[in-house]
């Protein structure tokens, strides 16, 4: 097919494509469409497949032209987008070309039509000037180790009822019947909740934790809050019995530990590895944030919409429900789907731009991974997780898992290069536990 094409860049990484097809090809395509329909259609007085063309044109003229026009446009677009020379101008998989206006099919004239669609963003990451990446300073000492051991004790604690007559204390697990009261002491409709379970001292939904301290099983008490009153009845009180920090606890945690010292050494290794990974994540995020600011580009709307909707579907799966039912659940909480998706827009946009920049730099710098580097990565993971190299390799036997590992090694090589080209300075000191609370 003889055709002329003109690509005009538009805002937000979209393209306007204008195509002109010679009248000879237009007439030939119309003739082919006519012949195709003639084989399939049946009209009284004529055998199937033997209806004359002039009869068809007289009876279905405009419909024939519409069908032919659609086939001509589809055929020409397929020819253009299959051309490797136009790979940068191909539409995104989720962005179908939209026809502008209604072109007229005149068999005596060239056919010109215009479509608009989104393309992959064109990114040039050249500006690295003035970038200063802050590296958080984390100390892992005896205090941090003791906190981890305390958490292990709590996970291995036994739960039993507190003796009748004993008062509830901070750290106890309590079951409460709760209802709000109005200024006259009457129950407020819709606020009653029976069997509410929480741990005294932890954040609770009704902010009654302090008021429950000192209550005994079966006791009812009015609790004053900031702007309201509530009545709580203590139905059950349970206590945690923490196991002793000894060799037995270490053996309960894992059969690979024989002594408490074995457990402590393993914790120290894991804490150091976790801190290193988290600090690297924070550094990488800081670097990408600055690269996005210094090398701005627009995302196509269809790409952003697809990402946000994918997050919505994933959230529905996490709640083990359908996207439609999730929308009803969100509405019941006083928020709409549109409001939630709008809140996600900024994070989704940053994530997509970060991914595009990383992929572009890996491609531009021709970063690849050797088998020896993958073997070194296996050993690194084994050392960090206190496992054997064979165990790590078994984990990555699945081709997709290994592909993720290779991509991760490529990214690490990229960041190692970038950190030689930008300034990296010491950031604020941060506690080990707080390190994982940061966004």
Write the layout of secondary structure elements.
Elements: E1 3-10, E2 14-21, H1 23-40, H2 53-81, E3 98-99, E4 111-118, E5 132-138, H3 142-155, E6 158-161, E7 173-181, E8 193-199, H4 209-212, E9 220-224, E10 229-241, H5 247-253, H6 260-294, H7 301-318, H8 323-332, H9 337-364, H10 371-385, H11 389-395, H12 399-418, E11 423-430, H13 432-435
Parallel strand pairs: 5-11
Antiparallel strand pairs: 1-2, 2-4, 3-4, 6-10, 7-8, 7-10, 9-10
Helix pairs in contact: 1-2, 5-6, 6-9, 7-9, 10-11
Description:
The chain is an alpha+beta fold. It contains 13 helices and eleven strands. The strands form three sheets. Strands 6, 7, 8, 9 and 10 form a five-stranded antiparallel sheet that branches. A four-stranded antiparallel sheet has the order 1-2-4-3. A two-stranded parallel ribbon has the order 5-11. Strand 1 and strand 2 form a beta hairpin. The mean pLDDT is 91.
Short overview:
The chain has 439 residues and is of the alpha+beta class.
- Low-confidence stretches at least 5 residues in length (pLDDT < 50)? none
Approximately how much helix is present in the residues? 40-55%
Q: Mean pLDDT, as a whole number?
A: 91
The chain-level structural class is alpha+beta
Number of helices: 13
Number of strands: 11
Supply Rg: 34 Å
Q: Based on Cα principal axes, name the global outline.
A: extended
Termini separation (Å)?
A: 55 Å
Instruction: Please state roughly what percent of the residues sit in beta strands, choosing from under 5%, 5-15%, 15-25%, 25-35%, 35-45% or over 45%.
Output: 15-25%
The helix/strand series, from N terminus to C terminus, equals EEHHEEEHEEEHEEHHHHHHHHEH
Oligomeric state of shown chains: single chain
Largest beta-sheet details: 5 strands, antiparallel
